[in-house]
Specification:
alpha/beta, two-stranded parallel ribbon, about 300 residues, 6-stranded parallel β-sheet
């Protein structure tokens, strides 16, 4: 059984991985109180005392706008920690797998972006994530970098969950229609990570997302459509498209950040899920969880 040290196990993706069915893994996922991934000496001691075959890093500073004003925190978690973890993995002969982002691209050029496309991040978040990729590869040639996009699940704080909450409470949404990417269900990414590890994929950069492309407006509209199958929506639960000019953000996002995932899909024999199906799954899970929390 593969021994996996999962870093970031309390996050959105980490929680899905910890409960992933069918994985032949023995997962150890220490809380940050036991393993500070930004502390070089602490990481080395922990990894040497807890032998593993794989270190899977799902930790990150993901608050894209906050990273603009919290550069130090973003650098420590996104840029520094991956190199520390990758170096510790190399010391014990373990594979290092690191989850990164579509925001390493600037949205120009010719998307969808292949894994070897030039990276030109526009934000602190994107720059620190790219720096983390580079630090990992420099520290450990056995590193696998997995870029993904617009992650969501039914049991975490993400755009799909927020849209479900707002619309189910009858609140209208004004949503950007000029940022394009691929919403990706955490289940899809967890499955790909499982296959990459269990099939001993060669080191390198892989792209993983669900299939297709959408704007945030498209996603919100899909949430509303699926939500209407489960609950009676108020007439005020509307979704209106707006431009980025009408909704300034601290961090600059790529206008189009769709990833070319064919290399990964072909290598692993994956038939990708359409993004809208993943969104529907997360909405259904969120609704079911809300109902379970209601008193009988």
């Amino acid at each position: 059984m593969t021994r996996v040290l999962l870093v970031g196990g309390s996050g959105q993706l980490g929680r899905v991985i910890r409960h992933m069915p069918g994985a032949a893994w023995r997962i150890e996922s220490p809380p940050s109180s036991l393993l500070d991934v930004t502390n070089d000496a602490e990481v080395r001691r922990y990894v040497e005392a807890h032998p593993c075959d794989v270190i899977l890093n799902c930790s990150a500073f993901t608050r894209v706008d906050d990273a603009e004003s919290q550069l130090g925190d973003a650098e420590r978690l996104n840029a520094h920690a991956p190199g520390v973890l990758a170096e510790a993995a190399a010391r014990v002969g373990a594979l290092f797998v690191h989850v990164s982002t579509d925001y390493v691209f600037d949205g120009s050029g010719q998307p969808p972006y292949a894994p070897d496309a030039p990276c030109r991040p526009l934000s602190v978040y994107g720059r620190t994530k790219l720096a983390g990729e580079m630090a990992a590869v420099a520290a450990n040639p056995r590193s696998i970098i997995v870029r993904t996009s617009w992650l969501h699940s039914g049991a975490a704080n993400n755009f799909v969950a927020r849209a479900t909450q707002l619309l189910s409470s009858g609140r209208p949404m004004r949503v950007l229609s000029d940022q394009i990417g691929t919403p990706t269900c955490c289940d899809s990414l967890a499955n790909a990570l499982n296959l990459l590890i269990d099939r001993s994929a060669p080191p390198g950069i892989y792209h993983v997302s669900d299939a297709g492309a959408a704007s945030w407006f498209d996603v919100a509209f899909a949430v509303r459509d699926e939500l209407s199958r489960h609950v009676q929506l108020a007439p005020t639960a509307t979704v209106t498209a707006i431009s980025g000019r009408d909704f300034p953000q601290r961090a600059t996002r790529p206008r189009v950040s769709v990833l070319d995932c064919h290399k990964t899909w072909d290598l692993l024999g994956i038939t990708p899920v359409a993004w809208v199906e993943g969104v529907r799954q997360s909405v259904a899970e969120r609704v079911a969880a809300q109902r379970a929390d209601q008193p009988a």
